[in-house]
Amino acid sequence: QVQLVNSGGGLVEAGGSLRLSCAASGSSFSVGTMGWYRQAPGQERELVATITRGGTTNYADSVKGRFTISRDNAKVTVYLQMNSLKPEDTAVYYCKADRIFPMKTFWGQGTQVTVSS
Fold this sequence. Notes:
The protein is mainly beta. The protein is 0% helix and 58% strand. The chain has no helices and 11 strands. Strands 2, 4, 5, 6, 9, 10 and 11 form a 7-stranded mixed β-sheet that branches. The relative contact order is 0.32.
């Protein structure tokens, strides 16, 4: 099993910044791609950003240029730096990790991000 523990999040004014962290433990040596997803009230969960072990990143169009995903492979930790936050970024943010073998997806517990206008 892989356990994911989120930290960061909270309340910030529009235009502000927040940083999320997600640390993997357990069978973390076999973790491949990690990423962040978010779910706003009444909405489906959506991709925010992903990063492979090699550092290849992928972003949702809505966050490109404002959010930066990074990871520390030694610590098996993924980060999401969120700048120029907008009220529409308000959501619960979930960390996701894909275990390579045996293949399985793990989710963190979610952390609330609220951006006030």
